[in-house]
Amino acid sequence: MVKDKQLVAIDLFSGCGGLSEGLKHSGFSVLAAIELDLKAAETYRLNHPEVSLLNEDIKRIDPVELMEKLNVKPGEVDLIAGCPPCQGFSRLRTKNKSGSVRDERNDLIESFFVFVNAIKPKCVMLENVPSIADDDRFLKVYEELNKAGYQCVYDVLDASDYNVPQRRKRLILLGSRVGKVTLAEKSLKKNTVRHAIEGLGAAGDSGDEIHDMPEKRSKEVKNIISMIPKDGGSRFELPEKYHLACYKRSGGFRDVYGRMSWDKVSPTITSGCHNPSKGRFLHPEDNRAITLREAAILQGFPEQYRFISSHGKESIALMVGNALPPPFIRAHADSLKKLLMDG
């Protein structure tokens, strides 16, 4: 077993850096990352300054030229990992809109394979929404990976089973051409909302810009929030006279204006995580929505992870909601690391 070997990885579709954060916690050195969105790229650079980041459209990048820039040859990179933008695959877009599966972003999964086929990493990691498993493009890439010599395994897993204080179902695929690969074992216990965020300073006066961003709510909404029972309470527990018009518009979205529970995992953190009209995003105890810092921690980012407040609340929430939970990535990277180090 080679104990001092430095494992190297490339992060495709890096976003603000959740995947790279998880890889680095596992011991991988991230050589390069690719991200099209400017604000996400700026946030990535702030937290991972040592990584060669290409703020470009992946379709315009030649993987051979990237290898030359990184001074690596085919077969030398240990891992290529990525989460192709998946909005076109999401359940809400596909449930009643058959045309949404033709979203051009779905084709980016094929770009993932283009890089794998050229760089020939020892292992691959692909993460995405569960519904991608039924799409022909994913099945084609899965088949092409197998033909290229990768033993692959994939499944839909809940991130809360891997030390993430959040319920989040995702598909993850691991592949290897250096041995049999297995998905990570589940954590023995859940990481709760209480464990994740109870110890933070009071929002609004902490000195952390994204924990202190103010809310803008009407007096009526503030009053209703104050009446929702603490620690997991729901809008359904209020008298009907206090039901807002948005309650009726939300239809089957039962978590709207609900509080998180201290001793459970949080609901899925989405781009609407700062808005209680978008889900169960009220603080378990305080009469407010969770802050962006709390959302980032529930997504699995360390408390010190930096975001740029001038990007604005909506943009930061989008980055956090779209990010990959670092502990979830680390768990599966650890599985690949063991295989690579023993090989």
Automatic annotation (TrEMBL):
<dbReference type="Pfam" id="PF00145">
    <property type="entry name" value="DNA_methylase"/>
</dbReference>
<feature type="active site">
    <location>
        <position position="86"/>
    </location>
</feature>
<keyword id="KW-0680">Restriction system</keyword>
<dbReference type="InterPro" id="IPR001525">
    <property type="entry name" value="C5_MeTfrase"/>
</dbReference>
<dbReference type="InterPro" id="IPR018117">
    <property type="entry name" value="C5_DNA_meth_AS"/>
</dbReference>
<protein>
    <recommendedName>
        <fullName>Cytosine-specific methyltransferase</fullName>
        <ecNumber>2.1.1.37</ecNumber>
    </recommendedName>
</protein>
<dbReference type="GO" id="GO:0003886">
    <property type="term" value="F:DNA (cytosine-5-)-methyltransferase activity"/>
</dbReference>
<dbReference type="InterPro" id="IPR050390">
    <property type="entry name" value="C5-Methyltransferase"/>
</dbReference>
<dbReference type="GO" id="GO:0032259">
    <property type="term" value="P:methylation"/>
</dbReference>
<dbReference type="InterPro" id="IPR029063">
    <property type="entry name" value="SAM-dependent_MTases_sf"/>
</dbReference>
<dbReference type="GO" id="GO:0044027">
    <property type="term" value="P:negative regulation of gene expression via chromosomal CpG island methylation"/>
</dbReference>
<keyword id="KW-0808">Transferase</keyword>
<dbReference type="GO" id="GO:0003677">
    <property type="term" value="F:DNA binding"/>
</dbReference>
<keyword id="KW-0949">S-adenosyl-L-methionine</keyword>
<comment type="similarity">
    <text>Belongs to the class I-like SAM-binding methyltransferase superfamily. C5-methyltransferase family.</text>
</comment>
<dbReference type="GO" id="GO:0009307">
    <property type="term" value="P:DNA restriction-modification system"/>
</dbReference>
<keyword id="KW-0489">Methyltransferase</keyword>
